[in-house]
Write a structure and sequence with these properties.
alpha/beta, 9 strands, 6 helices
């Protein structure tokens, strides 16, 4: 899907809410969820976003207008895997309105768009590109079992030295895995724990 028309994007949903995980937890932002993902994580909480053909191709200018009308100062582009689409036009339109741009990505596709913040969440099924790793502001690794700690450490060595490091328990295995994460962070203080607090608050 690389090189798709810059004027339309498969829009799954859009909403004004509060960031519920990672470095910007608690920050208000407008969320834009795009369709399309070929990674297929078994624990994904938005599998309805995987098939882009199930979602309408919406003019990017309309999406930008919705962001402006919300009154927000920042927009989070997520998915699915948003980098399956060229995001240059979307970002430039938001930037012209002085809206900060954030992306949540697996890093498996080439980077497009001009970002104020890149949150990289690498997936084993389709590892991230080095260029995305090097530019990431935040590395957020989902911990499903103990083998994921090695996956996290592998990517810690690739990202830049200023990148913030987070371990996030896989939601359905929270009770079992959180003690392991707490123990790991106590031994490796460069890492912090990310929790999906929006689920506790019952907000999108």
């Amino acid at each position: 899907m690389e090189g798709s028309s810059k004027e339309r994007l498969p829009l799954v949903e859009e909403f004004f809410s509060v960031q519920g995980e990672g470095f910007h937890t608690g920050r208000a932002a407008y969320f834009i969820r795009l369709g399309g993902c070929d990674i297929g994580c078994s624990w994904c909480d938005t599998p309805f976003s995987w098939d882009p053909q199930l979602h309408p191709m919406v003019e990017t200018d309309i999406i930008i207008d919705h962001v402006i009308q919300s009154g927000t100062d920042s927009a989070v582009i997520t998915g699915g895997e948003p980098l399956m689409w060229n995001l240059d036009y979307l970002c430039s339109g938001l930037k012209r309105q002085k809206i900060r741009t954030f992306i949540e990505t697996s890093g498996a596709y080439p980077l497009s768009g001009n970002w104020d913040w890149i949150c990289l969440s690498p997936k084993k099924a389709k590892p991230p590109r080095d260029e995305v790793c090097r530019k990431a502001d935040e590395l957020k690794v989902i911990i499903e079992d103990n083998s994921d700690f090695d996956w996290a450490e592998k990517h810690k060595k690739i990202v830049n030295k200023k990148c913030r490091l987070f371990l996030q328990p896989e939601w359905s295995r929270f009770e079992r895995i959180i003690p392991e994460i707490v123990s790991y962070v106590k031994k490796n203080p460069e890492w912090r724990i990310s929790l999906q607090v929006h689920k506790y608050m019952h907000i999108p």
